[in-house]
Amino acid sequence: MIYARSMRMLILCLAAVAGFAQGPALPERLRDLAASPRFARVHLGVHVRDLDTGRTVFAWNADKGFVPGSCAKLFTCASALCGLGPEATFRTSVAAAGPLGADGTLAGDLLLVGRGDPMLLARRNDGPWRPDPLEALADQLVRAGLRRVRGDVVGDGRWFRTRPWGSGWEIQDRAFAYGADVSALTVHDNMVDLRIYPGPAPGRPCFLFPQPGLGLLPLANRTATGPGPAIDLAWEGDTLVVTGALPPGAPPLTLAVPVRNPEAFAARLLRRSLERRGVQVDGTARAVRDSDPTPGRELAGLDSRPLKDLVRATLKASNNLYAQLLLLQQGRSEAAGLAAERTFLEAAGIREGVILEEGSGLSRKNLVAPEALTALLATLDKRPEGPAFRAALPLAGVDGTLQARMGGSAAVGRVAAKTGTLRFTHGLAGYAEGPGGTRLAFALLLNGDPAPDAREVLDRFVLLMAETAP
Prior knowledge:
By secondary structure, the protein is an alpha/beta fold. Helix content is about 30%, strand content about 25%.
């Protein structure tokens, strides 16, 4: 007994000597970095939690509210996974608003009904999946006997009771790919890739090639080949007006452009797929959004990928549209989705430090405390949904929004975290494995910092966690 006690004392002494030889432990190193003059004029919040013991390893303004940027997506995705289940799916249907005759004629409209699948036809396909779900739906309709539609092909986005943007999104956000319109019927991330080539001679219009497909997006080409102002885009109703110039022989310019009226855009895509198969459509392709849904008989349908895959696509690429759709899935309106999220957080014991008004983090009015983020991460670490949640996070130096960060360092393979970026706002929150297998949850939030090295400075905190014993 005395021998065993002596051996334990010897081991502890040796560990202490080793720690002294290696320099300060993790809390001291983190404190030295947080207290550096680099952060004297900005707002920094840090919280690091040991996942196995639950103790706080380090805290710096950890209970203060910070604008989280896309770190807010962690709350949205965690709540969706735990509330709906990792295997949940969302069905897109094609319904008949009238009877389908024996000769294959539909006496009425054909409704393409969206129920919030963000990846029905994904702009960036991150793995094996059906190449074009709208083609698959058209095949189903032909097999169901459809030969003619006497009415219109109608894009129906009424499943969600929401406007096409999140609360707190600014008007300029909607002009860019990261602020694409939100709809229960989402196709191609509600964007087109517009490729612009100079024309054959000076003064001639440039060539415009939207993807997917010519004729699906109303375009007004007011460009010219030659010197002049840079290419600019503006919307006039549902028509995209392209102005400016490209010099002769210039390389093509590709711009990601959010579409207006994504429901009508999806309807045009389905109508094109039907006509390719010889189905005659007498009417037009249009959208319906404001009135109450009219039930119809389903003629075709497809289920989404499992929710765990949708969460992975959301977090790896930090997709604002997908995140807002996952919030809406929890209640069919923004307010109901946020209420479901609050219920989830309260059940997890997180009752303070989280003020969110939408699901993506694009709002500048969201406020989150770093210690609330690590509490969320610790909660998911102990839940059955935890592996799916962790697998969805970007990996340092490997993929997602961390692919180009911390490469070749001790963080590779040992850090999985969500980034958060707005103007002068930076965040990083996730899991880190330290020396000896120490498992940490961390949250770093930095507000009001215009310096170009802000991300690299946050990475230094993470590298300390990966390299230093706590």
